[in-house]
Amino acid sequence: MSTDDVLAEVGPRLRRMRKDRDVTLAGLSEATGISVSTLSRLESGLRKPSLELLLPIAQAHQVPLDELVGAPPVGDPRVRSKPIVRGGRTHWPLTRQPGGLQAFKVLEPQRKEEPDPRTHEGYEWLYVLSGRLRLVLGEHDVVLSEGEAAEFDTRVPHWFGSTGDGPVEFLSLFGPQGERMHVRARPASGK
Question: In 3D, which of 129, 134, 136 has the Cα closest to residue 144?
Fold first, then answer.
């Protein structure tokens, strides 16, 4: 299907979506800030759709932009990644695209380690699938059990790992800054 064919289908799709939701042109205009005449021309195909027009319409209908333009289905959505072993931890990447939000399934073996808190820009989310995960975050030293989650600003010194009682499997999500750890200097006293 050519680009012109895809664009020709947008207008009728917009009209069907609006009517299926029982929304008037005036109501959609109020929700999007787009004039009634522009919306009418979009639906009739007299105006070519643009991103600046489609984004507010997608937001008003609470649908992904792909649904408005009838984007072709994507290929196999499954992520097939190979495990990466770093520092004894096994990481399975759960996202394919570099940059942006990254997700990993992590298996931390049973071991007793001295926490070594680090900082970096961004936020991190952890979710324990099985076992118990020790999280040192600033002044807090907590243990997360299966089904528990933590969210934190990674500019706060943090460390997480095994409690020493057994292996732990968890999900880790973070932005691109989370890949760049920074060593925090310790005071001369070693505390």
Answer: 134
First to last CA, the chain: 65
Phi then psi for residue 5, to 5 deg, are -65, -45
Determine the Cα–Cα distance for residues 80 and 93; give it in Å rounded to an integer. 9
DSSP H or E run through 30: helix 25-32
The parts of the chain modelled with pLDDT lower than 70 are: 1, 71-74, 98-99, 176-191
pLDDT digits (tens, 9 = 90+) for 165-186: 999 999 999 875 544 444 444 4
Measuring CA to CA, which residue among 16, 39, 14, 13 is closest to residue 27?
39
pLDDT at 73: 63
Provide the greatest CA pair distance for the chain.
74
Among 49, 7, 20, 45, residue whose Cα is nearest residue 32: 49
